[in-house]
Protein 1
Amino acid sequence: MNIVLHVGHHGRGTGASFSGRDEVDIATIQAETVCAALHSAGHTVLFIPSKKERYIDIQKVINASVFPVWSLYIQFHINSSKVINLDNDHGLIFYDRRSSVGPIIAQAIATSLRVNLKYNCKAISDDSKGYERVHPCIQSVRPVAILLEPHFIQVQRDEIEVGKAIAGGILKWLNS
């Protein structure tokens, strides 16, 4: 399987910040962990760190790439709110509403986070009410597209373990 892992925020700073922790740094740890696990399992992975290019420009390069056809695109983010604590922390795994496979992959990732880390996490369509900002992040890419917000930045997590759980969900789907 050919997989693109992309850390979001395309050069717009660090994303959300809380207590000296920056979204881009946290998402990078998760993405690097997923990348290592997928490589170890024999998959081809293109890792794209946060860059200054707009999402649509990066996605055009992926779509026109001389690389083999990319089958899965995952964009990494961390959610943020002023009123989150450990009791109401939750994760959302978004899938492109145009995809028939996206909901299955998103559910596999959400289930892995719930089972392995006891997260309150669910798969949700990118056109769900209140989440209209998600679709523009993944709308222009040809492969099946997933956008991750596995938890809130205000709740400190072991990001390597989060990455392992995300990879576990992807690998479970790939092996099903």
Note: The chain has one domain: 2-174.
Protein 2
Amino acid sequence: MRIIIENVTGWSVRYKMKGVNNMNVTKKESNVVYIYNVFQCNFYLSKGCRLLETGLHPSTKKTWYKFDYYDTQNAYDEWCKRKNELIK
């Protein structure tokens, strides 16, 4: 899932997700993306993206991987192209 940061106002960050209406999410940090897919995380790392932090989601207990938003843009585009090629 690609998350695009549109507007940052104080603690509120507005996200746009493909196929989902815009929603406001309260975050302490902006310009970061959280990835829950370990294969996507490994792909980002292989492309030279720097992993900022890992953690466990409090309610789902799924592991998340935090990356800088701007650092992952090229890797995300390659990830999507790779994924589309696998579907064909």
Note: The CA atoms of residues 33 and 76 lie 11 Å apart.
Protein 3
Amino acid sequence: MAAFTWADLLFQIGFRLNRIDLPNAFVREMAAERVDFYGPQVLYPAEVVNNDIVTNQGQQFYPLPRGTQKVRYVRILQGGIWIPCPIADHYEDILYSDPQQPPFVSLPVSLCAVLGNQLRLFPTPFGPLPVELTIDQTIIEPTDDNDSTNFWVTDGRILLINSTCLEICSEYLDIEVPQSPRIEKFQKNTDEALAQLMGRSHALSTPSLMKQHL
């Protein structure tokens, strides 16, 4: 029997709604929203290194990777050397340091701060610089449709399918019937799946089971 994949999961959402005509991009977006919502509830964050950010000249803010729960360390590659970039204790520290408009762009980056889901660098980068983040991050959905090992395709599958179906019904398909039978069904299934995952994570002495999917 073929392994259940991310593509299969996305198909199941439309199939269970009896709406396989739903745009694939829409289903993906709704599933991603549920991953962002439930991920911190059912998963222990793991410490990972991320190199997605490369700075642009004159750009101060950069979106943090999805699933980021905490930024622990920041390093910036300048002149072939990875230079640690201290994280400000308070966002206001950068505001006090950067009063000019337009901001400084000629100095090496020497300070950063997290604001919401963004990272602000000071001084403003003067060109493309690779940024290395050490972060606590929960698992996001796969980027490969053939992925069969991601947490959301295995242990989290029932929760993600039912919660996504619930959200699509609540916000779009059954918006005029807030207590429709299928909303009630998907709500019940979502609650049961969430309780099961929470029960499993609380029964562990360590978070190793949930971390193993990273």
Note: Residues 204-214 have pLDDT under 50 and may be disordered.
